[in-house]
Amino acid sequence: MGSLRGLRQVAGSYFRLYERGASSSLRLTRNSALKRINGYCAKPQESPKAPSYTYSHRVPLHKPTHWEKKILLWSGRFKKEDEIPETVSFEMLDAAKNKIRVKVSYAMIVLTVAGCIWMVIEGKKVRVDFLVCFLQRI
């Protein structure tokens, strides 16, 4: 544990020395866009400009696995497995997965309601059987 503490102290002192060197170099530069204010570096107020970079419209593509191909088919995106291209976009996969997720949730709702109705019917059968047995004993 002592060596770890010493290592942390050495690293801390190294970074403090590095920060001093960096701050002095900031003060010595002439055409720097940064100025030193109360120990902090801040950019001067500038008017907002349009970004100089251009946005590329290329969408990253993904080679679908066998399972993802099945999802694309079940979601109705493609009719046959032969129609699925070699690479598809992540957005297409996400849309297909969301559609399957919604279909599964609808199926679960239907199964839950059907199960509740079935339990009510079974419960009434048990109640009728119980009453018949109870009345025969009396």
From TrEMBL:
It is a single-pass membrane protein. The chain crosses the membrane at residues 104-121. Keywords: Membrane, Transmembrane, Transmembrane helix. Pfam families: DUF1075. GO terms for cellular component: membrane. InterPro entries: DUF1075. It is found in: Membrane. Belongs to the UPF0389 family. Proposed to be involved in regulation of apoptosis; the exact mechanism may differ between cell types/tissues. May be involved in hypoxia-induced cell death of transformed cells implicating cytochrome C release and caspase activation (such as CASP9) and inducing mitochondrial permeability transition. May be involved in hypoxia-induced cell death of neuronal cells probably by promoting release of AIFM1 from mitochondria to cytoplasm and its translocation to the nucleus; however, the involvement of caspases has been reported conflictingly. Interacts with HSP90AB1; HSP90AB1 is essential for FAM162A mitochondrial localization and pro-apoptotic activity. Interacts with VDAC2; the interaction is probably involved in inducing mitochondrial permeability transition. This is Protein FAM162A. It comes from Canis lupus familiaris (Dog). The lineage of its organism: Eukaryota, Metazoa, Chordata, Craniata, Vertebrata.
